[in-house]
Input
Amino acid sequence: MQVPKVLGIETEYGIAGGPEQDPIFASSIIVNAYAQEGRTRINWDFDSESPSSDSRGVLNFASFAPIVETHLANTVLTNGARLYVDHAHPEYSSPECRTPLEATLYDVAGEEIMLRAMNVSNLSLDPSMRITLYKNNCDGKGNSYGTHENYLLSRELEFKAVVAGVVPHFVSRQIIFGAGKVGAETEDGLEQNPAFQLSQRAEFFEEVIGLETTLKRPIVNTRDEPHSDAERFRRLHVIIGDANMSQVATFAKLGSTSLLLSLLEAEGPKVFPSMPVHPVQTVRSFALDTTLTHAVLCEDGKKRTAWDFQDELWNLSDSFVKRTGAQDVAPEDEVALILKHWREMLDGVRDNPASVADRVDWVAKLRVIEGLKDRYNLLDNDAKLRAVDLQYHDLRNEKSLARRVGLQELFSNEQASEAVHNPPKTTRAYFRGQCVARYPEQIVAANWDSVVFDLGEGPLQRVPMLDPLRGTAELTQDLLEKNATANALLKAMNG
Amino acid sequence: MSEQERIQKQKSERAKTEQAEVNVDTTKGDQLKNDLDDLLDEIDEVLEENAEEFVRNYVQKGGE
Output
């Protein structure tokens, strides 16, 4: 069975500065500043969170379950997103979106929200304590933080089928969606001593499958926390991937992955390319190869480069779209745009990298690195090159290098501003965001699958939202517009 | 000569070279190189001044 590919991205931002250089305190300042500015101080409700549930069916007590912190700043925004402090980073979890393009827009809105939060925070901080945010995934010293994608899957799909379907994509997609990195920072990475890697994250992956996200990071994360009706849905929680500054890269990353998951639901894992024999070595070795010629042995005895994997996966997706339309991923025009960018980026990185420097982050970054190296005769490990690597991801307009390298944009400033304030109309995020905007005084908490109201008398009332495809504008706009108060809304819903 | 002055000097020299090339038939390769030079000039202007210190001070806690 195929289900619509509802999706979203959560991003932990790098953070520098703040009082006493304390990143947890600085992250709280960021979240609280935005919440006060937007007057949404509605708490996140942890009741239905169970991040230690495992898709493989049994809880693996030998592994470290992720720790959920409940005491830090945590808010729900009017656009349906969650803005909070996760570990020592401010994190934006986008609202649930219906298509890859919409999810890209809400990722761009997340950047804008972080930028506004940073600017508001810095107004009240001493100049020596000003906070800077970075949309990246590592600090160059062995510390990594994540950009996670989430996709709705049918529960009927067995988990081992998911693994067989996604591993070929997850090890190879970095050749077009990698954000690039100068040097290396893990023990194994440093041994290889690369000048440049395609991905920020690749060298941090140590397992093929697993529950953890902070230790022994797995290529396929087994967290089974659907945030929806667990009888019908899975949520694939993807932890392998870089934060992209390129909007087109984000879009094609979400689009290609959605298409492949939809194909997997429709036809099972047998149509997919064979897995590499050693997936972890593969993801790391592909990251180290900017020539894109390194081939790895697969379980079917053939050798494939990352480019070969992507070429096969693109052809599978193209044929799937021709046969079925892939309407569970997006409307026809958008699906065509996914395939177009994916193909052009794939051919570009191999045949003419300069032609895709406006879309592929690692190509754009490497062009600057090599240009400066030539201009000043710099060595591979010059601090200036590492500074470029970091500053590529700086959110400040006056400092960001990503904003200067000529990346294509998919959305106008007006569209991004609209998405900062308003939820997507196409999922339950609409109902959540609208409730936060309309009845802020009566909502005591909200999370992905419910909103909790306090009407002042009687017990708290929880409105469950177990289906991500309900609570849309089509289904709830009239109801919300007709009921000016939370009391009236709940009365109408209960009546 | 300070680094800033040296960059300025290099830039003005490059500007002269570019002007001289306007009249010749600019191939696509030259165009790409000029674009990159302009980009690098712009990046030089905004790059953190003390790269070493900037990179050293950027330390994060692991996340996720």
Notes: Chain A is about 40% helix and 15% strand. Residues 7-416 of chain A form a domain with the Creatine Kinase; Chain A, domain 2 fold (CATH 3.30.590).
